[in-house]
Amino acid sequence: MILLVFAFPGAVIGQMAPPRPAAAESVQARGVHLVEEPGSDTLGVVVDLSREVTVRHEVLVEPNRLVIDLENTVFAGAPAQGSNRAVGPVAGWRAGLFLLGRSRIVLDLNRPVLVQRTDFVRQGPHTRLVIQLRSASQDEFAGRAQEDQKRRFASRVPEGPSVPRPAGAKPLVVLDPGHGGIDPGASGPKGEVEKEIVLAVARLIRKQLEADGRVEVQMTREDDRFISLGERVVFARNRSAALFVSLHADSLFGEADVRGASVYTLSDRASDAAAARAAEKENRADVAAGLDAPEAQREGVDDILFDLARRETRLFSQLAARGVAQSIQRSGRLHKTPLRSAGFRVLRAPDMPSILVELGYLSNPEDLQALMQEAGRQKLAQGLAAALLDFVLNNRIAISTKPLE
Ligand SMILES: [Zn+2]
């Protein structure tokens, strides 16, 4: 192992963390390095840590990925990414916070590899985690992925039934700031990231709605953490939300003139090619964070019942989308085709009106400016809050008479 680490001393030692006192709370991780051993088909994944941690790893197929979880660990500094730096079997990788108190490294593989061994090597005040990978056949890899998946399902918390809102309770709006943690979402030319923008706008909308006082507001995330698409839906359904609003911002490089907000509802067939692309991009969030591909995920509920409930829900969702688009139009930053639909996974609740708002494009200079400035965010938040209030208050009776489960 030592030989492996010292094979490229410049690349590894050059980025050692400075000495830091042993923290009682989270373990600090700094830098992820992939180290190839010349003349061998093994690869080392090297992470510098403030002390030893519990390491778990598993593999996933479609596409082939290796996921390494570090318990009770946070990465110092900005989340690291190595998307464009292929090393041996690794086509790209990303690392960052997965759940509160757990960090994750996801390796996208261009050929199957498995973990051969895991070692901790003392390096003065630090501990260096060295994970050695070995080549495997696709059969062996797929077999391991199947075992890992079985274990994940066995430990899965079942989706609970919706809890009806108590009589007289204010209707609940659930705001869902997209992405978070290991998944930054879209990015702008100067490193602006979608996950931060949508969280900031969501907070402003909440403030507006709470100031009004006629609805209750909850957010699927209030900080920089990863939440799967399924968990976002479950969060809102379990609380019997009157409306679920997922907030995003897109980026289309090479198409800088595409601008303005769009409001999406669910459909099996996308309204246009760009809408299909947007849904595909947003649906990739779970895969990027090292979760199962959507096809492999058990929905955990009876899809036929869901289909029966869906039609009415869709009509309400479309009504909400129209109101939001009209309200944003007054502030003048609407996409030329603002009402669109596609197969967004986060909009699949059968019994809860759900919309997804792409607030604008980080690839368009004016949109970016509006999304990065307090005044632009306020304007968007005001428009959205007014439309959400209008929808929820005026459609309250219709929503509350719907069967809940
Ligand atoms: Zn997004």
Describe the structure.
- With 405 residues, the protein is of the alpha/beta class.
- The chain folds into 2 domains: 2-151, Sandwich (Immunoglobulin-like), CATH 2.60.40.3500; 172-400, Aminopeptidase, CATH 3.40.630.40.
- 33% of the residues lie in helices and 28% in strands.
- The strands form 3 sheets. Strands 11-10-12-15-13-14 form a 6-stranded mixed beta sheet, with helices on both faces. A 5-stranded mixed beta sheet has the order 5-1-2-9-8. A 4-stranded antiparallel beta sheet has the order 3-4-7-6.
- α4 crosses α10 and α8 crosses α10.
- The longest helix has 27 residues, at 303-329.
- The structure holds zinc ion.
- Zinc ion binds at residues 178-179, 185-186, 194, 248, 282.
**Cα-to-Cα separation, first versus last residue:** 55 Å
Quaternary structure annotation: single chain
Rg, Cα atoms, Å: 23 Å
Structural class call reads alpha/beta
CATH architecture of the largest domain: 3-Layer(aba) Sandwich
From N to C, what is the helix and strand string? HHEEEEEEEEEHEHEHEEHHHEEHHH
Supply the key terms.
405 residues; alpha/beta; Immunoglobulin-like; Aminopeptidase; six-stranded mixed β-sheet; disordered N terminus; disordered C terminus; binds zinc ion
